Amino acid sequence: MDDDHGQLLSGRYRLSRLLGQGGMGAVWRAHDERLGRDVAIKELRLPSHLEEPERQNRIARLDREARAAARLKHPGIITVHDRISGPDGRPWIIMELVDGGSLADLIQAQGALTPERTADVGRQVAAALDAAHRMGITHRDIKPANILLEEERVVLTDFGIAALEGDATLTATGMIMGTPAFMAPEQVRGLPATAESDLWSLGATLYAAVEGRAPFAGTTPSAVLVAVATEPPIPAARAGALGPVLDGLLHKDPAARPTMDRLQAVLNSVAAPTPPAAGPDTLVPPTMPAWSPTVRQTAPRPTPEPEPAPHRPFPRRAKLGVATLVLAMAAGAGYIISQGAGDDSRYEANRKVAEALTVPAGFSRPTTTRVRPNRAQVTYTWPAPCIDHCADQVRLATEWMARQPGVARIDALGAELGGCLDDEYGCPILIVRVPSYEDPTLQGAALQTKNNRLSLRVDVGR
């Protein structure tokens, strides 16, 4: 916590200042009193309501982050010095201190970067990723916030959800891991992340740097996920020579993305373009400091930008299928996607079906609320605290959903493991519907625990 300031860890690391914090941890600036140097220390925070299996899962994730970064020795990857345990047994990672902010901080403070500066950041991150991929490590969460800038050096950090070749997975099959605006389409669909997925995320990150905004927009995280899976990126207006690179990286088909060697070659050329040879009719203005008030430099004529690569339309059938899958998952997670105003008669038809549903075995009678556009959301609650990640209750809930009319298949996406039950929106449940069924039925669902009580939210509609 913030009052940990001044705490001495392992007899040598004195915490001095909180640098940042998130949902699962915090990063401190500290002084290594034994070696006389400043370091960064990542603290794992474990809320008191977590049960022991989930506490151990989070500790295992931090350990995996330490192992992933410790395997790698590269100037573009954060250096891990040690992993220690605090007085209460919680793990802390001792890392090099990168004395600078993140790429996200820079974009927020300065706005869009030039194509050349963006390419320079990109080529350094690409080199770091190349080193990680050669060691069998997929980062899975490339985004501006995980890229640190120290003068001209660019450092990739936060391997918290990295996939290590040969390690047992800590993520349930089908569970979505990552940040929506920077996740590859295959990750959105619940497929395993690969080296090509990291390239997509790098492309989205470079797009955000050169344009000042992410390539896919939406009013909710679920809307962003649908856009990533089914829509082309918003056309880039400032990318210049970087445009074709972004088009290639953001290709929906992983096999169509550029190879790492090709990517690095193109980024190098954009970051350090070859100046045109000076001829008799060429004016080469003097190079002066940007702050000089006394010299006016002749602005070079803009060079025509290359034509953007032709967009390959995503097959409509595939697009609709992916959109249905993502929407079902997102709606079940508590995200509501606006599809325009609806009429009361449609909602009333959905509400009648919702209130006629049976109650899952052991759950309490439901409450029904209206969610946009016209769906009826039913909430069932387990009356007592549950144990063992609520595994029995999750099974009862999914079996009940699978028996409802119009439902072809249910996939709990690892909810029975409990890792997402405490999340802000809980665990989304994938509902595959019978295509020919036309009456209102289950459209999305989520399971979530609050105060160790399990609730099941179900959306009913057409």
Describe this structure in words.
- This protein is α+β, with helices and mostly antiparallel strands and 462 residues long.
- The protein has three domains: 2-96, Phosphorylase Kinase, domain 1 (2-Layer Sandwich), CATH 3.30.200.20; 103-271, Transferase(Phosphotransferase) domain 1 (Transferase(Phosphotransferase), domain 1), CATH 1.10.510; 338-461, no CATH class.
- The protein contains eleven helices and 16 strands.
- The strands form four sheets. A six-stranded antiparallel sheet has the order 1-2-3-4-6-5, with helices on one face. A six-stranded antiparallel sheet has the order 11-12-16-15-14-13.
- Strand 15 (441-450) and strand 16 (453-461) form a beta hairpin.
- Helix 3 (115-134) packs antiparallel against helix 5 (195-211) and helix 5 runs antiparallel to helix 7.
- The two termini are 47 Å apart.
- It comes from Embleya hyalina.
- Keywords: ATP-binding, Kinase, Nucleotide-binding, Serine/threonine-protein kinase, Transferase.
- Its EC number is 2.7.11.1.
- Residues 290-315 are annotated as: Disordered.
